[in-house]
Records
---
Amino acid sequence: MQNPTNGNSNQNNRKNWLRGLVGFSLAALILGGLYWFFFLYNRVSTDNAYVMADSAMISSRIPGSVQEIFVENDTAVKTGQTLITLDPRDYQLALDEAEAALNRTEAEMKAMGFSVSQSDIQTSAQQDSARSGVGEAQDRVREGEHKLEALKQQRIAVQADLAIARRDFERYDRLLKQQAIAQQQWDRAKTLLDKSSAQLEGIDADIQAVEASIAAARQAEARSHAQWTSAKGGRYSVNILQQQFAALCAKREEVLAQLQEARLRLTYCKIPAPIGGFIAQKRIQKGDRIQPGQVLMAVVPLEGVYIEANFKETQLKHVRIGQPVTINADIYPGYTFQGKVAGIRAGTGAAFSLLPPENATGNWIKVVQRVPVKIRLNQKPPPDHPLRIGLSAIATIHTEDRRGPMLMAAPPSAKTEP
């Protein structure tokens, strides 16, 4: 027979156990809610975060042999500090050749300039002289023609006087033979005839002289025309010389550009640090032969490091630029860095990989993608807690304030095409 006391005891134990289980569950729920509210609410976190920096990869712009190396790995350098020098002898020789070519071209230009000036003055004087000679010859021809015309008119009048004098003489000669006039009248008629004949001969001589002078003036005009034509040809030669001078001027500009290039290449024999930081990945030694673009070392600006955190795409719904971030680096347990969201990448890491996924293929498997988020530190890392590139970290974004943008705005100076 069952004892009633034992049954009541078992029932009480069961109730107590249920009460304890309910109480424990309620306590766990309360504690979980409090933990979620204080540590997870309005926060997204990832341990896929690493320290990054905009490092400068040092390379040469020209080929050459390493002459001196002034830094080693982990050396601190300042902006503009000389890191490497190359053997400058080949480039100094090229500079000397360019300077000699420039001096030679300038000497040729000077000589050509004198030749152009001399030819220009000479041909201009020849043209002016020939043009003046043509004008003078034409004036003499016109003057001779006018004089010739006047002589011809005068000859006509003298011929008329001669004809009258000849008729009078013939009449007086007949009358004298008939002894009808005195000898004195015959003498006057004879004198008048001789005078008219002499005048005609004189006019004819003057006409011949004027015609000869006209012919000479026309010959002089022809010679002046020939000289003017020759001088005009000389002007074409001056034009050719001027074009040659212009070609020398263009050649001087070309040689000057080569000289400037030679000077610039000589300056490339000194390789400076483009930014301040610490030397890393030094890969050369003194005497090495290097080529343009070959990576020689890197300058890491540890004071300008930032965090690149790769959040899942499902975590970015409330993430905005400017939100505060707490960073815990694995190298410094218990130490927290403060920062803020500086940018959210325009694509996932897989989209920019060397071999992006082909989701259109038949063997597609959905994978949650990660988007890089850039986090800037509010202050430079302290000297006793420096951050180095590649260190792992845990980044937690506080998303309470969601007023910021999800995309960074373009800078005011940026110009966009219409």
---
Amino acid sequence: MPSTKGSVKTRAKSVRGAGSRPSRHGQAYTEIRRRILAGDLAPDEPLSEYQLAGELKVSRTPVREALKRLEHEGLVRFVSNRGAFVTDLSIRDIVEVYELREQLESFAAGVAASEMPLAEINVLERKLENAQRLANEKGSVKEAFDSDIYFHKQLIQCTKNGRMATVLATMDDQVHRIRILSPSAHGRLQVMLCEHREVLDYIRRRDREGAQEAMRRHLRAARENAIRLMTDAHH
């Protein structure tokens, strides 16, 4: 009987290789989502299945599946007889996101003031100083974004409260879209980093109430800035 060992190995390798490649639906989803979050696809922009399929070099089916998935995530909306559109970011969305963030992240700042190890405080301070330096020298938006994300994530992680982290993670996409607006305001980049510095100073001093109140002020300022930019954009 001829040996089938080689053919079995070949088939197994083929199956593993096929499984390791992203699906066309997955590729379409990842790229359309990236474009929305980067602002390349603007709020209320129509999403043509034909156009996207051509650009992504896939058929319409994976594009349609990707748009349906993004609809469930709140990034795409379907309008009867008109098709798919990028979801608009409303003032109400901004208010709701920041109301929840203010309650949970002020608590996180208080916990950090009580429990964050000094070594972690020092890391936050070095990253903040680097972001401030690059913002002052080069107006670096990317460093400010990265610093903002890292700063807030570390304070949330310090609580060791998995449920709170999960709740906040569900808003990551909305928060990211709001963040894109923030540096557009004159001077907001530097002000945001100074607000981080104030929170961190209270944490270093182990002042729980001070850290909580500083975080509230920071998030309220970010909310008002985002609302002002959104209002201006619609006029």
---
Amino acid sequence: MKDTFSYKKIWLVSYPIILGSIAQNIINVVDTAFMGRLGDVELGAAGNSIIFYFVFVLLALGFAVGAEIIIGRRNGEKNYSTIGSIVDHCFYFLMPMSVVLFIFLKFLSPTLLSMMISSNAILEASTEFMHYRAYGIFFVCFNFCFRAFFIGITKTNVLTWSTAIMALVNVFFDYVLIFGKLGFPEYGMIGAAMASVIAEACAGIYFVFYTFRYVDSKKYHLFRFKPFQKKLSKSLLRISTPIMAQNFITIGAWLLFFMIIEKLGERELAVSHIVRSIYMVLTIPLMGFSTATTTLVSNLIGQGNSGGVLKLVKRTSILCLVTSVILLLVMHLMPDLVVSLYTQDVSLQASAKPLLYLISGAIILFSITYTIFSGVSGTGKTNVSFLIESSIVMVYLMYAYWYGLVVQQSMMAIWSSEFVYFILLGSSSILYLKYGNWKKLAI
């Protein structure tokens, strides 16, 4: 029986995902910073719209993660020839799904957003933004098929380059389309939506080029596009559906959280979206390690070493905690500079800084608990991870609703709900990995 993955192996799988996340967060930071230059309404509207968009994106990601888990299991078993069929079935499911999601985003988002946003100015701007942003869902679903393949076989360095390309393209077109530079028209906020769509399309082109140029298609039997396999389809849906539902609930809760903040006022929403963007930067290491945990756990079980899972999760959590603390220390050395990247408004800066210190504690918990939770998903028991997530999200939202709208406390009190979420998530995940019935699950 093989030993669990070493710290070095965990790092080698994780760091390309982390680098890819850095590039992805460059997009997030630049978008938020540019919107901050346009005004509070634009900042709040674009922030809410992006979260709304990702409610639908994460549905597609949930299916891709399910495929990634099965690919990881087959990779661990060295059953390489079956991986191509899994990738093909990703396309069979995700490309039709992109059409359905596009219809929702393009034509139903005005109605859905009007139910959640009270400010007419923010609602109008959000609707206009989503009108253009919706087209990106086609490229997102296409890219997720390749992402599942490369993460599943632990060749994560490809993601670094694809996301770097996407970041560079996005930053360039953000600049020229938002502000009308280099002879381009000045589109303002919707220029950011256009830039994101162009960037996602470029990432897709890179995936196609790299796969056909450098991947051994014969080894994995890639792109043979044989008819649907009933057994494989059922397995994919059984693993993926709970993750899709889980992602929908998670990002939906995040959206509702900001809708609660929006009830406090446009200024409070703008401050919270600045903090949200910084928060996303601070989560770069843990998102990389959590993704690596999922696929490494699945690979480990495929090797017949279920007993090494807890050791793997512990090692990943330690690495994640150390890198997160380093990033937090860097931020705390220059908080004024960090906030000033997003806005020159002194009052906005003053309101954002106390929240930065609050979320630092949440990041510490996040870095430990989310990698442990990802281990639960990696076992293939995605129905359990869904039950854990959904039950905790309910508590999280009730806490935020109570302090935000019932007793009408400050933003600080509402944001403290992050601690409730991560304490419950971590404790539940540890208990399941220690005592749950997952070691002999076949997928």
